[in-house]
Write a structure and sequence with these properties.
2 domains; Rossmann fold; alpha/beta; 3-stranded parallel β-sheet
Length: 422
Amino acid sequence: MNKGIDRRTFLKVTGAAGFGVAASTFGVPTLLRAAPPTIKIGSVQPATGPLAVIGVGQRRGNQLAVDYINALGGIKSMDGAKLELLLGDSESKPEIGRSEADRLINGGAKVMTGPFQSGVALAISTLCEQRQLPFIMDVAALDKVTAKGKKYTFRVFITVSGLLNGAVKYLKMVTDMKGVMPKRAVVTNTADAFGKGMSGGFVKFMEKSGLPIEIVDRVQYPLGIHDLSAEVARIKAAKPDILFPVSRPGDGIILARELYKQRVELMGIYGPGSPGWYEPDVIKDLDKLIYYVMVNVPWINPSSAVYKQANAAFQKAHSRYLDTNSAYAYTGILVISDILERAASTDPEKILAAAHQTHFKNHPVVGGPIQFNEKGDNTGALTALIQVQPDADLLKRVKIVAPKEFAQSDKIVFPAPQLWKR
């Protein structure tokens, strides 16, 4: 897969069917062969609703990988079987995500993927355990999704525990490096399953971290909120030195603008692990207001040949870079195809056996080989620390600043200039 597909290979692959037509037209005997089977993969993502900007990117990442595998000849151990993506929309609601997954399974899906949100992942996981169908999640972090006793559920993404370990590790690194220690902090989060779990876990991790940073308030609000003026007034009254948001793209934009409007003084914004600060639409919308935000996040590996190829195709098709969510969606399909190749079957038990033997290196994200432990979690998943930094090229503003082996910038700006002074 790392080799990609050049023009000659593409013409060879796509020209085979044309040769068959030409041969039969001119009376040349041809060997008639049955068309290879199609393997249907169900993908449930939040394609509409408050997380649509992410869900659409997830779908595009899934589809890009399906097209790539098919262009390379499909699943060769199954006579070149082609992959087909069946699409479902969770609308960011667990009950709808489950019903959509059920619809796709009834429509012939042999494997499920998705669904970005942990609450939706819990619902689909329960269904897949009941239906005895492999569920290989591209993105969803809440630890309990892969609870003990689940047989058919696997996670390519990192867990909340993994995110929290990275968040505290990089926060210590930044404060030590810059010689500046915030004293007061506020945590904010969306009040969905991931938001509550992530922020609650972060507060506990901070209490055990040894860092002399006091969490003076935790501000929660509904997913999809349109006005954060009261919440930001509460943040301002708490007089924090640093803000730790667990957010989504919509509320991230509203939060940054309201912090600017109310002139809330901060050393910086540090995301312990959530979207809302690195998506191209958010970067473009907030412009200078998002400069110097730091986020601990599972991220793309810019030096990976797999990433470079996939990102070029993604940018050509959609005029945006392959970010952490869409890259993991792409990776999820690559992992599924690798498992199917080794299983040489769509039988659930053979897929499970192959999944447990996974050692997948050829992926586009930060981390080691993708391997699943006894709970189905990826032991190779890691996070990076990214910071939004000034750059004339919008698509190059998000830069890895740690760990060193993946870094794109050798500087970290902290404390940051106040929002209204940029």
